[in-house]
Amino acid sequence: MDKHEYQIVHLFPTTLFVNNIGVDEKIRNNVINEEMERMATDNGYISNNKYLLDKPEYKNLKDKVFEQLNLYIRHYLKVSDNQRFFLQNSWSIKHVPGDWAHEHMHGNSMISGIYYVKTTKNSGGVNFIKPHGYTNLFHSNIRVKFDEETLQNSEACHQNSVEGNLLLFPSHLVHKVEKNLSDKDRYCIAFNFFIEGEFFTKESKIDYLKIKEHKENE
Predict the structure, then answer these.
(1) Quick check: 115 and 68 in contact, CB under 8 A?
(2) Which of 80, 112, 83, 102 lies closest to 14 in space, CA to CA?
(3) Residue 81: which region, alpha, beta or left (left: phi > 0; alpha: psi -120 to 50)?
(4) CA–CA gap between residue 154 and residue 177 (Å, rounded)
(5) 3-state SS of the chain?
(6) Which of 61, 89, 189, 216 could cross-link with 115 by S-S, CB 3.0 to 4.6 Å?
(7) Residue 74 near residue 170, CB atoms below 8 Å
(8) In angstroms, rounded to a whole number, what is the distance separating the alpha carbons of residues 36 and 133?
(9) Distance of CA 194 to CAs 66, 84, 106, 113, Å?
(10) Nearest CA to 119 among 164, 179, 158?
(11) pLDDT tens track for 18-72
(12) Residue 120: what pLDDT?
């Protein structure tokens, strides 16, 4: 092998799925017209309905989301077919000019997502933050200088808010939303998935329908 040739192996990467599925005008209008309330953090609005994609008028969008989820978990992550992901909850977010979102993760779920319904230039992207102490390279207590920022050495990964973009990522991945610096409102839908089915053994199977039936028969 030539001394200048080498191989890079990406060990245990955290994967972010991004694909543009477009925006249907009816869906956009539905989201804009959803009843919303100001968040307790006073940095955005959230829909009153926390199961938005279960509404009949969002069925086509829900089907598209599941198509993209299957690309992510089956085609790329190679999750077995006997383990099914179900939609836990879904809600819309409105960020008016000046709004933003603090660092957070989505608790009690496995896969989370963001779908951008209405955006404009400078309306604020999302930054995914490397967890404190995550040692994919050097530990965070060692402050190494780099000549160039890359996905391997950076502390965060930025994604612009592009209309029609669908993002899927592990729910434990910390992220925050930049301040909306435009003069327009920004709309998106967020959602969470959890898993059910047979894991490594039949004894570790999770079947929420049977759990529910058992409780009802107690």
Answers:
(1) no
(2) 112
(3) alpha
(4) 18
(5) CCCCCCCCCCCCCCCCEEEECCCCHHHHHHHHCCCEEECCCCCCEEECCCEHHHCHHHHHHHHHHHHHHHHHHHHHCCCCCCEEEEEEEEEEEEECCCCCEEEECCCCCCEEEEEEEECCCCCCCEEEECCCCCCCCCCCCCCCCCCCCCCCCCCEEEECCCCCEEEEEECCCCEEECCCCCCCCEEEEEEEEEEEECCCCHHHCECHHHHHHHHHHC
(6) 189
(7) no
(8) 37
(9) 13, 8, 11, 12
(10) 164
(11) 999 999 999 999 999 999 999 999 999 999 999 999 999 999 999 999 999 999 9
(12) 96
The more confidently predicted of residues 192 and 80 is 192
Long-range pairs of 22-27 with CB within 8 A, sequence gap ≥ 24: 22/164, 23/116, 23/117, 23/118, 23/163, 23/164, 24/60, 24/61, 26/57, 27/57, 27/58, 27/60, 27/61, 27/117
d(CA 87, CA 109): 10
Q: Do you know the residue count of the chain?
A: 218
Tokens read off for 23:
């925006």
| Tokens standing for residue 175 | 């992220």
Q: Which domains can be identified in the chain, with CATH numbers?
A: 17-130+152-217 (2.60.120.620)
